[in-house]
Write a structure and sequence with these properties.
Order of helices and strands: HH
Structural class: mainly alpha
Largest sheet: none
Number of strands: 0
Number of helices: 2
Distance between the termini: 15 Å
Number of domains: 1
Oligomer: single chain
Strand content: under 5%
Radius of gyration: 20 Å
Helix content: 55-70%
Shape: elongated
Length: 86
């Protein structure tokens, strides 16, 4: 049977596809927004050095890690259910 219930590989595939499309869309929107907002018309401006970015660094390292662990656990559960036949 070719259904896409939550315990099937089809659901894992479309789940990963949806997560990827969601974050790709967010990245594209922010890149375009900030490219327009911060365009440099004079080429004379110099940015100040950034200090104290540890929370940002931890955030953009831990959030993708936790998402990937969640996908791994979900896919592992689906795999073991399909192998064991339950």
């Amino acid at each position: 049977m070719n259904t896409c219930d939550p315990g099937s590989t089809c659901a894992v595939y479309f789940g990963v596809l949806a997560i990827t499309a969601f974050f790709a869309l967010i990245v594209v929107v922010f890149v375009v927004y900030f490219a327009i907002k911060h365009r440099d018309d004079t080429a004379d401006k110099v940015a100040a050095p950034i200090t104290g970015g540890m929370p940002l660094e931890l955030g953009w390292s831990l959030i993708p890690f936790l998402i990937s662990i969640g996908i791994f656990v979900w896919a592992s559960i689906v795999f073991f259910h399909s192998v064991r036949g339950s």
